[in-house]
Amino acid sequence: GAVVSQHPSWVICKSGTSVKIECRSLDFQATTMFWYRQFPKQSLMLMATSNEGSKATYEQGVEKDKFLINHASLTLSTLTVTSAHPEDSSFYICSAPGLAGEETQYFGPGTRLLVL
Amino acid sequence: QKEVEQNSGPLSVPEGAIASLNCTYSDRGSQSFFWYRQYSGKSPELIMSIYSNGDKEDGRFTAQLNKASQYVSLLIRDSQPSDSATYLCAVIKGSARQLTFGSGTQLTVLP
Questions:
Q1: Are the Cβ atoms of B97 and A108 closer than 8 angstroms?
Q2: Residues B7-66 pLDDT 10s
């Protein structure tokens, strides 16, 4: 199956700094990627849909100025958490739909963010 | 009402037993249904997908879909301790291909 990678796998940063997370589709092109956030003991919540060459679509309640998404190529989407605060500490996971006509989504391994 | 609801559990079954996981969804326009398994600290991995009413079997796993009742289930036969994980029900509606997840059911298979 298709492979999606994320980098870094974990990051610790100080409050007020910005953190960039990369999501790459390794063996297929993804015009759309999805970014999820998962707090401990909770399910995945969709944050935004990243669209190659256009603006991301954010879910209600997600601050687009805080969570900057860039989808500059068919294999790379980035999520930047700006001015991170301890409440942003979470598990961030990206996914990409499979081939055209395929409903399956392929998930990256996730990035664990800890803001001190 | 949540879009996708699951019994949060935890659910414990002895090794070798059948584990039954249930999920209901609110939007009748939902088209595609998935079961994901998530180990602690890991991202979800796809177990089963089902798109039409009835049963779909894959090895020890059987997914059941009843669109009239807006209900989808996952049966795990001959449960193994390695099946211990959180199982997430997910639904796609419309053409956006966005997944909406349930809250997950934590399953523990006791050796």
A1: no
A2: 877 999 999 999 999 999 998 888 899 999 999 999 999 999 999 999 999 999 999 999
Buried b (16+ CB within 10 A) or exposed e, B18-50: ebbbbbbbeeeebebbbbbbbeeeebbebbbbb
pLDDT given at position B49: 92
Closest in B34, B43, B51 to A110, CB measured: B43
Residue owning tokens 């990206």: A94
Residue B100's nearest CA partner among A54, A95, A31, A109 is A95
Are A33 and A96 within 8 A, CB to CB?
A: yes
Residue B76 and residue B57: Cα distance in Å, rounded? 10
Chain B positions in Cβ-Cβ contact with residue A44 (cut-off 8 Å): 44, 88, 99, 101
Q: Are B36 and B98 in contact (CB under 8 A)?
A: no
- Tokens read off for A101: 């006509």
Identify which of B32, B49, B101 has the shortest CB distance to residue A43: B101
- Interface size between A and B, measured as CB pairs under 8 A: 45
Q: How far is CA A111 from CA A44, A68, A71, B18, in A?
A: 13, 16, 18, 33
Eight-state DSSP code of residue A18: -
